[in-house]
Design goal:
Length: 267
């Protein structure tokens, strides 16, 4: 049993050479995710869904069984990982990790929908099926780099978002007092004005609500120009973080290809 658990762990957690069991399992999982994406899109086409709805229901049931089996195999074999060695605490710790939560939500909403008939909740469970797409995250190196960037730049990003929130509240308050009397329906309160401020600061535009007073137009123009710089703050932080991570990856790759003692390239 110990040998079997180790073998299962290696197959589902590691990516091996092409056509190895590890590689075949990874490809199978990715294909299942892509097929589920196609199935969800097909379900939104009423004319197609009417013809193939029985087959889609069968495929959904099969997918739930497949993703549930994948989840329970991972939980069962995870004790082979030194970080989760304890049979109880280790598994519970693993089940609370982001990737394990994604694996759980890939199939769990299906069982909840069987017992809840409220249409709004059923729609929510249908949306939660998109967690299946996130299962491919573990195979995408760029996502890992993105996670490292968020972790390394969390303080700078937090400060920038707090600053943006402060500016948002400030411009919403100013615009409310400037435009409220002229447009009481569109700028009826500061929270209502905040939506206009968000649309203006991000330069998305909000054509049916615009300042009409002279002061409001001047303030709106300043806010629109200010928004260009505000949006660029977190973008610049993320860009710098990606540059640093990519440089680290290249240095690590180059280090693996050269002898640490003589400096000659390793073939």
């Amino acid at each position: 049993m110990k040998h079997l658990k180790l073998k299962v762990y290696e197959i589902i957690e590691y990516t091996g050479k092409p056509f190895s069991w590890n590689w075949i399992y990874d490809v199978l999982l990715i294909v299942m995710v892509l097929l589920n994406a196609a199935a969800i899109m097909i379900e939104s086409l009423d004319s197609v869904y009417e013809i193939y709805h029985k087959k889609l229901i069968w495929f959904e049931t099969f997918s739930v069984c497949f993703f549930a089996s994948d989840y329970f195999l991972r939980v069962w074999s995870i004790t082979e990982n030194s970080r989760f060695q304890h049979p109880v605490r280790g598994r519970l710790k693993y089940m609370l990790t982001p990737m394990a939560m994604i694996d759980l939500f890939a199939f769990f909403p299906y069982f909840l929908a069987m017992y809840i008939q409220d249409f709004e909740y059923v729609k929510l469970f249908a949306i939660l099926r998109f967690f299946r797409f996130l299962k491919v995250v573990r195979y995408i190196k760029a996502v890992k780099i993105f996670g490292n960037v968020l972790k390394n730049k969390q303080h700078e990003l937090s400060f920038s978002f707090v600053f943006i929130l402060f500016v948002l509240l400030l411009v919403s308050t100013l615009m409310y007092y400037v435009e409220h009397e002229a447009q009481p329906e569109d700028f009826k309160s500061i929270p209502h004005t905040m939506w206009w401020a968000v649309a203006t600061l991000t330069t998305v535009g909000y054509g049916d609500v615009v300042p009409v007073t002279t002061t409001g137009k001047i303030l709106g123009g300043i806010i629109a120009i200010l928004g260009i710089g505000l949006v660029a703050i977190p973008s610049g932080i993320m860009a710098a973080g990606f540059t640093e991570e990519i440089r680290k990856e290249r240095e690590l790759t180059n280090h693996k290809h050269f002898c640490p003692y003589c400096g000659n390239r390793l073939d």
